[in-house]
Amino acid sequence: MDIVQKTDEFIFQTYPRSGNAFVKGEGLKLWDDKGNQYLDFLAGIAVCSLGHCHPEITKAISNQASTLVHVCNLFYTKPQAELAQALIEKSFADRVFFSNSGAEANEAAIKLARRYFQAKGQKSRYKIITMEQSFHGRTMATLSATGQDKIKEGFYPLLDGFVHVPFNDIEALKNAVDETVCAIMLEPVQGEGGVIPADNAYLRQVRDLCDQKGILLIFDEIQTGMGRCGTLFAHELYDVTPDIMTLAKALGNGLPIGAMLAGDNAAQGFTLGSHGTTFGGTPLATAAALEVLKIISEPLFLESIKEKGGYFKAQLQSLKEKHTSVKGVRGKGLLLGLEIDGNAGDYVKACMEKGFIINGIQDKILRFAPPLIVEKEEIDKLITVLDELLP
């Protein structure tokens, strides 16, 4: 039995896997077990933002793995403390809670928002408003928070306390706010929802509404954070500061780690024993993440993301001008989407056959989230292939 056969026979069939088995990666390149080479324009869905097997990340992992991999969170460790300090120094936040994934980071944010008010005796304030087409995870709470019905099928009844409104519609949001709402939760750019950025004025209006109503503002930056959109955190593009922010994906460049950050005010919701995790913030994961953060947060590196993202978007726009089958181009930095008149899955398959890994979402949108180290020459190669495929 080969790798594909073993996977299909022994693992739950919850993923529509395709192609051969990958066995090696370096930078943007991936190789499968048949010796085929691919350029990766998905990066594990915005995870391997410094590319596969980045030498500095590999070194940090190797050094830590030979020193200390895990102790429980009843004790102190140096990598965790240093990563927490670095995240605080580079963000609005004053406290960090480490988790294993983005879903768990969002779970922590949801729990913090509710407990913040209940600790103050305001037990009727428990509802969280999220956006239609949002994606916040696949645990029961984050699934309930997500604004896409198709991924909820078969899991009803969902958890109570979540209200969904149209994204970028401030009036709909205002109408949904009442005395039972404790938080508003949204992605600055909806990734799984179709690579839809918040309107320029919208996030400021949401922040103002939260301030007026005494509501906590949560930004889910699991896909948009860590430089993906051209600033360390996407909300910096809008000059709007949340009360709570969640990170994951690129934070570990492939190692499982998530983080929930909060300012001092919101952080009051968690006290001793109120939340916990066995594996969140292990020495191994935090050592890797610390090195990732050092590299991505360099101003010149962030500037390069803006430049390459602008170039990539312009090239996609040129495809729109040339092909009537292209209906739209959108996104921020190196999180971009191409809306097409056709089945996105067909283009994903065709690109893979030509040695390029991309992603299809919402049936008609091609999503591009390459490693942030992508070069213009590699972008040009993908554009050439898309040009050939598009009618």
How would the blueprint of this fold be written?
Blueprint: H1 3-10, E1 22-26, E2 29-32, E3 37-40, H2 43-46, H3 55-65, H4 78-89, E4 95-99, H5 102-118, E5 127-131, H6 140-145, E6 162-165, H7 170-176, E7 181-186, E8 189-190, E9 196-197, H8 202-213, E10 216-220, E11 244-247, E12 258-262, H9 264-267, H10 283-296, H11 299-322, E13 326-332, E14 335-340, H12 344-353, E15 356-357, E16 359-361, E17 365-368, H13 376-389
Parallel strand pairs: 3-15, 5-6, 5-7, 7-10, 10-11
Antiparallel strand pairs: 1-2, 2-3, 4-12, 8-9, 11-12, 13-14, 14-17, 16-17
Helix pairs in contact: 3-10, 4-10, 11-13
Overview of this protein structure:
This protein has 391 residues and is an alpha/beta fold. It folds into two domains: 3-53 and 299-389, Aspartate Aminotransferase, domain 1; 68-296, Aspartate Aminotransferase, domain 2 (3-Layer(aba) Sandwich). Helix 11 runs parallel beside helix 13 (376-389). Strand 1 (22-26) and strand 2 form a beta hairpin. It has 13 helices and 17 strands. The longest helix is centred in the C-terminal third of the chain and has 24 residues, at 299-322. Strands 4-12-11-10-7-5-6 form a seven-stranded mixed sheet, sandwiched between helices. Strands 1-2-3-15 form a four-stranded mixed sheet. It has helices at 3-10, 43-46, 55-65, 78-89, 102-118, 140-145, 170-176, 202-213, 264-267, 283-296, 299-322, 344-353, 376-389; strands at 22-26, 29-32, 37-40, 95-99, 127-131, 162-165, 181-186, 189-190, 196-197, 216-220, 244-247, 258-262, 326-332, 335-340, 356-357, 359-361, 365-368.
